[in-house]
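#onboarding

Welcome to the new folks! Below is a worked example of what a typical request in this channel looks like: someone posts a single protein sequence, and someone else replies with the predicted structure as tokens. Don't worry about understanding the tokens yet, we'll cover that in week two.

Example request:
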Amino acid sequence: MNKINNFAVIGGGQMGSGIAIVLLRSGFKVTILEVDVERCEIAFSSIKKNIHKMHEKGIVDSVGVNGLLRNVKCTTEISDISNSEFVIEAIPENINLKMELFKKLDANLDKEVIIASNTSSLSITDLAKATSRPDKVIGMHFMNPAQVMKGVEVVRGINTSENTVNIVVELIKKIGKEKIMVNDSPGFVVNRILMPMINEAIHVLNSGTANAEDIDLGMKLSCNLPMGPLTLADFIGLDTVEAILNVLHAGLGDERYKPSPLLSELVKTGKLGKKSGEGFYVYKGKI
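Example response:
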């Protein structure tokens, strides 16, 4: 772990940019791989905005801001990450996209490099099959927002080596997070418990029992949650919530994981939550 300094984060969206910030604050160099220049610019803008917020709060000084920004770059060429010493994948929750990416990463990286996936529900064992290094493939599921939340699920695939697990556990300590050890199973621990609650809140809304504000308020006041389930769903992204529920439903065969029709309808109409400006709540002008 002491020799690892250059990280690649694949995908600079909400999770990827957050993970990049965590790594930068811990003194590492980060290269983000994105699909096009526009998304690179969005990722860098998000990281810059977050780092400047840290400066405003007195977390980093002016010199620190410049140092952090010098240590991050974004590229659209996979060859630019070929010298990376550790890779964290954070692209959309789609098994086919991830499998295709893992094949490309395997072909372009040194054979000793660990490939960690930030997947929130997909099988690490299946992702590892797309590579020639299944012992070096592991789940490293950061919670959202990554730069704030302390927990990281460490997910062992069937062939993940003990050495890989030890390196990831050491890294998690180094970046100021806490590990949650999990064996490979649909949804792991957090989402297997969290997603049925969010799905049930959507069912309650759809039934007309209460409006979104009162559902969230009830859960906050009565269950001591910092954020109501519908607000949280909007923050996660309703497309991501639906994708995780589909994985849970297919993998576990339990009807409670079947996405609410209202959730699916919102996703179909492009109302994905905060990132699109509207979900269960309207965020236009607030993003």
